[in-house]
Amino acid sequence: MEPDAAQNPNPSPVPPPISAYYQTRAEHHAVVSSDWLAHAAAAAAASPGADAAAAADAAAAPPPSPGGAGGVIEEFNFWRRKPEAAEAVAAIMALAAVIRSSRATTMMELEIELKKASDKLKSWDATSISLSAACDLFMRFVTRTSHLEHEKFDAAKSRLIERGEKFGEISLKARKTIAMLSQDFIYDGCTMLVHGYSRVVLEVLKLAASNRKLFRVLCTEGRPDRTGLRMSNALAALGIPVKVLIDSAVAYSMDEVDMVFVGADGVVESGGIINMMGTYQIALVAHSMNKPVYVAAESYKFARLYPLDQKDMTPAHRPIDFGVPVPTGVEVETSARDYTPPQYLTLLLTDLGVLTPSVVSDELIQLYL
Amino acid sequence: YLQHFAVTYIVVLRNTSNCKVPVWGKRLLTQGSMIVGVYCVEPNKRDLIETKNEGDPTSVPQKPKLSKAERRAIQEAQRAAKAAAKEAGLKSTAKESDVNTKISKQPKAGKASLKKDVTQVNPPVASDKKTDECPPDKDRKKDLPQPRMQFDDVHRVVKAKKRSVVNQSEAQNRVELFRHLPQYAHGTQLPDLESKFFQPDLMHPSVYKVGLQYLSGDISGGNARCIAMLLAFREAINDYSTPAEKILSRDLTAKISSYVSFLIECRPLSISMGNAIRFLKNRITKLPLALSESEAKASLQSDIDRFISEKIIVAGKVIVSHAVTKIRDDDVLLTYGSPSVVEMIFDHAHELGKKFRVVVVDSRPNLEGQGLLRRLVAKGISCTYTHINAVSYIMHEATRVFLGASSVLSNGTVYSRVGTASVAMVAHAFGVPVLMCCEAYKFHERVQLDSICFNELGDPDAISRVPRGESLSNLKNWAENENLHILNLKYDITPSDYVSMLITDYGMLPPTSVPVIVREYRREHVWI
């Protein structure tokens, strides 16, 4: 990756800023070298072992301290490095830490302080949808929860901290709920296509396998991070028949697929999803072949965004390794994500229940208005 | 016509299955059956109706049937109490046998007493529908809006005329399918009304003025009409004093109702105005009795001011602030007609220094787009002007389509200036996102499937006349030819499939969220 970054002849004078969110994802879920697979195979243990090792690495590494950024971002980065923790959890942990260290004496002061911190977090990485959604959500909780106003300040404060610390559990519980709800959709003998590495989808498949369902999984390669390889490795360790295909073979293999399962980086107001690059085309192919597309996403990924088309989002770039140097004078599309409009999605499996895409907006209205 | 029968038929079926939802279902039911009523009174289509009604009992669930019978029983009982014994006897026979209905009701229709009218040719089931249309008045009136006047119903039209202030004369050569909508000969009544201006005790002068402005077309556009009406009412309330031995809340409501019916005679209400009137009446009935007259008046006036500023003006600003986030540099924005909110959006985006181009699509006969074009060009925005005929040609240049709406209905259908649907459909075909801008106070819980049931007819002459084209006046004396019908529809509906996004004061929403807004915020709108 590094040599490529150096050799990549980017025609634009300023290379686009790299999305921190996708950088983290790549660090956590990507297979960047063949050594990794060898290690994983040698370890014989399933991916949890590898994850634990990675977690240990991450914990050992001191949290980076970007010069101007304050404590909240350091805190956030510390939590973000843990592979099992979702980005939203990291954000809420960081906000909870703000409350803990706050010297505010009234609810209003605390609110203002929190608002500042969350704005800082959001602007630090504008490309991460779950970060901003989680910040909004936590702020909602602080401003909207009516019983907070009638309590003593200290009690309210500790309640908020407690809530923040519980969020990690809530996130894990959400995944469990989704896995449980999705079992009805997986039937014996089905073939499903998954794209990229999604912790929720993995949880779904794990539960299905432990329920002794017989099914087959096709994993896309998930370029450029090859996240699909990690996914297939995890699935193979669970004893699920799995086949890896290159991203361009999706249409070729679609006729043997019974359903498509994807995760989401964010679920937007229209009911569409923003997810790793390639999701849109898979959804399009599946739609045109009348295969259902299921999205597994926790409800804290619902965001008040409404992209009209692919370019109507904050651009999120990431370096792409082509293996060989890119010829000079050639531009490279480096966007890390795409937007799948709701008409190509069949159902959203969330911890709020199984929803049609149009319900997302209803939930958001009830949450935020 | 068969197709349209199918449509109304679906409406009826849907509504009967909705019957469990109390107000909703009933309201829809009356609407649905009204529509059926429209077609039923056409004598030459009797056979069609009969074939349709054959299918009815099988598909309509049992429950509404029962309730219908019950309702009928209540009606009969009420009437029996009211009317003479002889009449009551007649009606009980009517209840017993369907064949007798015809005979028993004919003399009654001749008397033109309680029922509005019963057409002689109606088959039995259709007369059943009729009872639906004119429900037992007393207990229903409160929770139901008055069924809309059906203008092909001769008796009712005659009756309404007696009450009316405006002497509208009916137009000739009306288009068959749209006979249920009011259609007047244009431009005949204005001098007459002007002369009436100084007659005392007719109408409050400010209301009268607004009415005349509607009539002459000086005020148009949903927001402008609504604001003008509210301001007129505000003035009327200011000058109002409660007559002796009357209660303000009762008398003022009646007064407002009479104003409203005057305004309807001038021009049918827009949905936004309907919502505003509903709000005002609600405020009047909810006034605490302890309030003195001057306090009550002041409170109503401040309510009106608040409605105008919060629901219309601030809402517009919020919409603008949302919409400009969707305008990028080098965009080509297409709009149709001259929606006021969209103009504000363009202005604001221009002030923010965004570089974009505007395509103004316009259509005959109003050519409102020219005004928009003039104002935009004056501000230095680069514009292209074209007529709707060329929309498929120009659409590939556009990157966003901004449209205004007169109302958004519960199923996400957008009710808007005629031509909007075509523009939205063309944009959809070209994959250009369509952004509908509409304040939430214009949302309505009604569902509409076609643009026929509720619409407004404009002046047919406006279409037949070609500006500065003496050589093109082929349709000069069209009214003399009874085979020629000219239709000038004012509104059409855009199905929600063709709308990418709805921009309202509650943010940017998919059209599927309209019922949520209507459900969650109706209370707030009406400030119950």
From TrEMBL, chain A:
Keywords: Cytoplasm, Initiation factor, Protein biosynthesis
InterPro entries, alphabetized: eIF2B_alpha/beta/delta, elF-2B_alpha_N, IF-2B-related, IF_2B-like_C, NagB/RpiA_transferase-like
Location(s), subcellular: Cytoplasm, Cytosol
Protein origin, superkingdom: Eukaryota
Acyltransferase is among the record's keywords: no
Pfam families assigned to the protein according to its UniProt record, in alphabetical order: IF-2B (PF01008)
Family to which this protein belongs: Belongs to the eIF-2B alpha/beta/delta subunits family.
Name of the protein: Translation initiation factor eIF2B subunit alpha
Species assigned in the record: Setaria viridis
TrEMBL record, chain B:
One cellular component term from this protein's GO annotations in UniProt: eukaryotic translation initiation factor 2B complex
Any GO BP: cytoplasmic translational initiation
Record's compositionally biased regions (Basic and acidic residues): 84-99, 127-148
InterPro entries linked to this entry: IF-2B-related (IPR000649), IF_2B-like_C (IPR042529), NagB/RpiA_transferase-like (IPR037171)
Disordered as annotated region, ranges: 50-148
GO terms for MF: translation initiation factor activity
Family the UniProt entry places it in: Belongs to the eIF-2B alpha/beta/delta subunits family.
Protein's UniProt name: Translation initiation factor eIF2B subunit delta
Organism: Setaria italica
